[in-house]
Write a structure and sequence with these properties.
CATH class of the largest domain: Mainly Alpha
Shape: globular
Bound molecules: nicotinamide-adenine-dinucleotide, zinc ion
Largest sheet: 6 strands, parallel
Distance between the termini: 40 Å
Number of strands: 9
Order of helices and strands: EHEHEHEHEEEEEHHHHHHHHH
Number of domains: 2
CATH topology of the largest domain: Dehydroquinate synthase-like, alpha domain
Number of helices: 13
Helix content: 40-55%
Strand content: 5-15%
Amino acid sequence: MSYRNFPMVSRVVFGRGSFSQLGDIIAPKRLNTNAPFIFLVDDVFKGNAWLTSRIPLAYDDKLYYISAEEEPKTSGIDTLVEEIILKHKEHPSGIIGIGGGSILDTAKAVAIMLTNKGESKDYQGWDLVNNPATYHIGIPTISGTGAEVSRTTILTGPERKLGINSDYTPFDQVILDPELTKDVPKDQWFYTGMDCFVHCVESLNGTYLNAFSKSYGEKAYELCKEIFLKDNLSKEEAEDKLMMASWHGGMSIAYSQVGVAHALSYGLSFLLGTKHGIGNCIVIDHLEEFYPEGVKLFKQMKEKHNITLPQGICANLSDAEFDIMIDVALSLEPLWENAIGKNWKKTITRERLKELYQKM
Ligand code: NAD
Ligand code: ZN
């Protein structure tokens, strides 16, 4: 047996207000005055001077506002990469993503595609990237996905929703400044925060579990319980803790895998465009048979925060549409193997998945 030798984020800053250090951090990384830093910023911050005035633009640097309305697509990545190459005299000094999981994944994918030929869809899968990515920095503005720490960038391509999983995907630098999350709307806070909770439930209840994953997963699980079920935290403490829960949840799945909720949620996302956080919430609500304790806690959290999830999103789907979602879900074999075990195909049938989807 050979164990995976996986890369981690090489540098990380943590602290409220640490975003202001960005200029000092990138200055030594500038290759020359014609080699710009490209800032990819969630367009929710357009006109928000509190944040944008601290983006250290110089020389040929360029800021692109990116919409997180839809999750990143391979076609969108390819267009953006082409624009960056055409508009600048030299290869960028670095790519800096400022936003939620959508923007962080966009930044990782752009950094990879700047140094690798062809189209981003060609790299969806495991270890298909040949060349090291352009220097890239991740600065999360909402907590939960673990995209700031993970070895993947999840993209929707023409044929599938699948990550570019590679040793070159993780950020070279991450800035964890919990203050950046202060204006996240309540519902979105819950959905993205629950992504972290679901990562823990799936990792801690999976067959791939090991002491490495368990130590991170248990910490993140405890933090989530404190944040979402107790009343003893200030807003700032809760922001700090959720940012660290996201990190630990991401670290936990780095050496294990996600499970049933993510497999089914990918199906919803591919067919209906349901976003990752809310999709996981819609799915986990119906997974008592797989994760009894986690689902019980999830329902308590949902109730405590008055979250109403959409119901009946699969009510009017045709058999062909159910088949598309089931195909996407079943194609994620490592997720099922982690959740159920090597013999998962004996119990995870198309009929069973259809019944689950019909409840959503
Ligand atoms: P998101 O990036 O989709 O953003 C959700 C919403 O929150 C958007 O409307 C955005 O504008 C808004 N927002 C973000 N920061 C804000 C702030 N500070 N104030 C106000 N509004 C803010 O949300 P997400 O849940 O973080 O990311 C989901 C994406 O992450 C999906 O594309 C999913 O596939 C991906 N993901 C990636 C990984 C990975 O390991 N790479 C893991 C899980 C999920
Ligand atoms: Zn997730």
